[in-house]
Specification:
Blueprint lengths: L1 E11 L6 E12 L4 E5 L6 H8 L7 E6 L2 E2 L5 H8 L2 E4 L11 H10 L5 H14 L15 H13 L5 E5 L7 H16 L3 E6 L2 H7 L2 E6 L2 E6 L7
Parallel strand pairs: 3-8, 3-9, 6-7, 7-8
Antiparallel strand pairs: 1-2, 1-4, 4-5, 9-10
Length: 231
């Protein structure tokens, strides 16, 4: 499904043109329906991996293969096709403050020209999945942090993506709401979607009991099923 083959990524700093390695010879694969946690400190390279899956970054060396397609030589129109198969969840929610919960989720369909009636039905289905049907007409400022993140998850699901990329989705939440969000992600995974979660939250990693890929200084230092937080 997704395979990283000896992937290294270097960035050149603006000051002194110094080369800074972000990833070093990273190799792993992801199967359909897996729930994988990328674990590590801030700056370890987790977000770079997610950006490569989304074709927003390309390796300096090595290759990233997405359903048999090597992304190193991919054209922008093909990159867009890959991104249409992905759902994105961010730490800072990225909701439109002047739109309701319903409108924030529906907007993701409107920009692709979806039929209005069909869009309404689809939005209500995903809001039901994340437990927000009663908050459909609320604005983001009227929601708790956990409810805002569940709105973000609903928006990520509206295109029925194969894969959800969640980059520190509980970073701005308290422990109670963090557990709530993880329950939603597990529910989505049980329904068949692949989840790739990036986090440095020890409690979340240890409670999930899913596959954990631990990254330190751009290298994979551990990859194990039913893994635990390890740095």
């Amino acid at each position: 499904m997704i395979e990283f083959k000896q992937v290294s990524k270097d960035y050149v700093s603006n000051i002194g043109k110094e080369i800074k390695p972000a990833l070093r010879e990273v190799s792993f694969s992801v199967k359909d329906g897996e729930f994988i946690t990328l674990c590590g400190r801030s700056g370890a390279g987790k977000t770079t991996i997610l950006r490569m899956i989304a074709c927003e970054e390309k390796p300096t060396t090595g290759s990233v293969v997405f359903y048999g397609q090597d992304t190193i030589d991919i054209k922008e129109k093909d990159a867009y096709s890959i991104r249409q198969q992905l759902g994105f969840i961010f730490q800072d929610f990225k909701l439109l403050p002047y739109k309701t919960v319903f409108e924030n989720v529906a907007y993701a369909l409107e920009v692709t020209g979806q039929d209005t009636k069909k869009a309404k039905d689809e939005v209500m289905k995903v809001l039901d999945l994340v437990g927000l049907t009663k908050k459909a007409n609320r604005f983001p400022k009227e929601l708790s942090g956990g409810e805002q993140q569940r709105t973000s998850i609903a928006r990520a699901l509206i295109h029925r993506p194969r894969i959800i990329l969640a980059d520190e989705p509980t970073g701005n939440l308290d422990p109670y709401h963090s557990r709530d969000i993880m329950k939603v992600l597990l529910k989505i995974n049980e329904a068949g979607s692949t989840i790739i979660l990036s986090t440095h939250n020890k409690e979340i990693v240890n409670n999930l009991k899913k596959r954990v890929i631990t990254i330190d200084d751009g290298r994979i230092v551990r990859d194990e099923e039913n893994g635990m937080f390890f740095i």
